[in-house]
Structures are given as C-alpha cells and as structure tokens.
User: What shape does this take?
Amino acid sequence: MATRVVCYGLGPIGLSIARLACARSGIQVVGAVDIDPQKAGRDLGELLGIGATGISVSADAATTLRNTRPNVVLHATLSSLAAVVPQLQECIAAGADVISTCEELAYPWSAQPQIAADLDAAARAAGVTLLGAGVNPGYAMDALPVMLTAVCAGVRAIRVLRIVDAAQRRAPLQRKIGAGLTPDEFAQRVHEGTVRHVGLPESLHMIAATLGWQLDAGDDTIMPVLAERAIATEHVSVAVGQVAGVRQIARGYVGEREVIALELQMYVGAPNPQDTVEIDGDPPLRMTIPGGIHGDSATAAIAVNAIASIRRAESGLLSMTDIPLVHYW
Assistant: This one.
C-alpha cells in the first residue's frame, strides 16, 4: 500500500519536498499545510506547477491531519526547535511519523535536552517516530562521516570541510549567512543569533555520541567572509568589503586533543565548492565530492528517501545515525 503523506510547510524547501513526493511511486500525498494566505486555499499542484492534484492547501493543520490520517508528515517550516514544538506535537498526536527539516531537531539532546526528552516521550507514547533530517545537518557533516568509519579498526579524529557557493542557493539562506551586510552589521547579527548556519553544533554532538566519544569541551566560531569583488545574485548585491557569507567552525575536544573539526564556508561567489571528509583512523580515509552537495535539492531528496527508513524504525525521537540506512528507493 502507498504511504499516505501530508506536506507541512510549503516554503522553497517544502515545495521541493512536495514536488518530489508527488512524483515518487509508493507515496500518496493526501494533504498540504501552510499558513501563508497566498497559498492557503490553492491547489497544491498549482503551487508545484504540475497541474491540478485535487489537494487544497490548508492553514488548519489539526483539521488536515485529522481528516487525512497520514502515515508520515514531511515537515519543513522553521529552523528553531522551540518554535516548531507545537507543530511537531500536533503531528505526533495525530499518530503520524514525522520527518522534519528543522535543523535544531537533527540532534537536540545536547543543546535542548528537556525539549528532546518531552518530544521523545510523546512520540513513544503515540508509537511514532520523529526524525530531524536534511543535508547539513543530517548528512554531509555528520551521518556521512560516521558511515565512512565503518571500515576503520580505530578512529582518532574526524575533520570535515564543506564549501558552498551560496549564490546558487535560495534567498532565505543568503540572508541567513549575512550576504550584503557590513562587517559591523554582521557582528551584531551574530551576537543576536540571527546570522549563522544553524546545525553545526548539532552535527558535532551527533558524531561524538554515535562514536562513543565523551567531549570535554567544544566551541563554535563564526567569522565573516568579506567580498574581494562585487557580486550580484538574483536576491542580493554585495559590494567589495561587504559580507559575502560565513566561515563557521565547530570543534570538539577529548581532554586537550581535538577529535572533531567541522568547517563550513558558505558565501556567495565561493570558489571550488566541495564536501571533503578526512578520517584519522586505521586505515586513514579521505573523500571529496567535487562541486559539493546542493543543499536545497538534496534536502528534499533525503527527506523523501527517509520515509522507508522511518517506517521501519523504533518509536521515539531519533537522529539520522539511529534509523535504518537511508538510501534512494
């Protein structure tokens, strides 16, 4: 039988997820939720550009979940876990497994342990699975490095470098990394917590917990990348000396030894995009994906591909390293 799916959140990522879900055999999209008044009431297919589907987008999540009885909710609304807890609780109460692109849900046990415990208890009580999924966090800088260690007899350290040309990415992401700000504006936004890549500390702790490393210390450093030439994208113009994006590094230590280093360079005009994983182990391993993984399209793919794994997983709040291996199906 087809898996009944509700698409919850129809921003740029949510629409990509919905488009892929509608095209995938074995999935029946039965509902769509978004509070945007420009989308509510319209046919989902109209928003996706695929023709009428007979599925009307609703701003009322509770009614949609009650009437459609989905097996899985594909949730893509906000990055802040605290902000989406009511939405996730609503989906859990409806008896649906949930795959969410909320970055802070990827591994919330370290930064937000009480929320994590509450969500885990609710999911277990309802007999459903709750998963934070995506490309970063959720794959490129955590689950993928962990998977590469499968052939290692020992691992001493993991280092990951991800370089992303943000000029090829959606407008909200370009704003989130501070493209077009002055250095002073960037520093203020970092202080406020509104400019940063959300999820790097979550990736750090996911790796450590999965490999059984008890971190004694960790840090998360955010620095601006300043434009050396004028750059214009579809969404922003960056003058010389303005901020093109971020360089963010999360490190974890056992004693005084650095065991994890995750470096993200995400800025408009970044040369040589790539995803590189280095494992100091037995044997040592190094893997580079030239061009890097395009985060937007890949996030849609991993969310949809995770459906098969989440349906086989145990109930509760899980991470990408807890569920059966996610792969194309």
User: Anything to note?
Assistant: The mean pLDDT is 96. The two ends are 15 Å apart (CA to CA). The chain has ten helices and 15 strands. The first helix runs from residue 12 to 23.
